[in-house]
Design brief:
- The structure is a single chain.
- 41% of the residues are buried.
- The strands form two sheets. A seven-stranded mixed β-sheet has the order 4-3-2-5-6-9-7, sandwiched between helices. Strands 1-8 form a two-stranded antiparallel ribbon.
- By secondary structure, the chain is of the alpha/beta class.
- It has two domains: 199 residues, Rossmann fold, CATH 3.40.50; 60 residues, rRNA adenine dimethylase, C-terminal domain (Helicase, Ruva Protein, domain 3).
- The chain is 36% helix and 19% strand.
- Helix 3 links the parallel strand 2 and strand 3.
- The structure holds S-adenosylmethionine (SAM).
Amino acid sequence: MGTIDGLPPLRDVIRTHDLVAKKQLGQNFLLDLNLTAKIARSAGDLTGCDVLEVGPGPGGLTRGLLAEGARRVVAVEKDARTLPALAEIAAAYPGRLTVLHGDALELDLAAHLTPPVKIVANLPYNVGTELLIRWLSPKVWPPIWSSLTLMFQKEVAERIVAKPRTDHYGRLALLAQWRCDARIVLTLPPEAFTPAPKVHSAVVQLTALPQPRFPCDFGVLQRITAMAFNQRRKMLRSSLKGLGPQVEAQLDAVGIPPTARAEEIGLEQFCALARQIA
Ligand code: SAM
């Protein structure tokens, strides 16, 4: 059966290039081109944008991004076996796909991108959270990218968008929501992937705010949220004891009861506490 871009169906690509999925590379492929086009569309208008994709694999999402009109896709892939398949896509979209062979955690990706930039990826589960934290933590804000559209395990997606007083609320929610609007735009069952993982997945859309939602020093916010959520069931006067004997007075000064627990405190109050401590 023909495909919209004239390239072979993904099952044929996998067979031709013998791309047997490797668990250690987090390889759970999306083979339905309608679905990859839908994920590409959830990133909004791509025309005029450079799109960074981490882990293109056999190229299903890459093809979606190109078909949806991305000015250029820069795709970083660790698995050399996928390179011939990706070269076929590059030939079908002359000048619009650049493939970088290497580890996304080690390459200087910004050097290959020209703004405006969007990042769209079905991330390998083993490095997904680390990449997200890096993208959320540049020295200068706003960052080079305007939005992130990322597939995670559903449980991680829920941690990113979680609100106070819910089970998934913690550091990842605070870090993401401090500088971004974050929402889940799509959830997918295991059967959507080949091979099927054990868990459900979800696509999160993060849009960079022009400036953080509330002022405070990033390092201090990181430190206090790490301490507070490492012992999330303890009262803050106890979990934050390491900040010094004045911590109860500092909590009082910003209107946080020292007997409150981390999961009850919203982003605005954590930022106020970070300012007080700084
Ligand atoms: N985008 C494809 C799709 O949606 O079908 C593949 C997604 S699969 C979940 C993750 C991909 O990331 C694999 O192709 C894997 O080889 C690649 N990968 C794993 N670790 C990587 C890393 N550190 N840097 C770059 N790519 C990586």
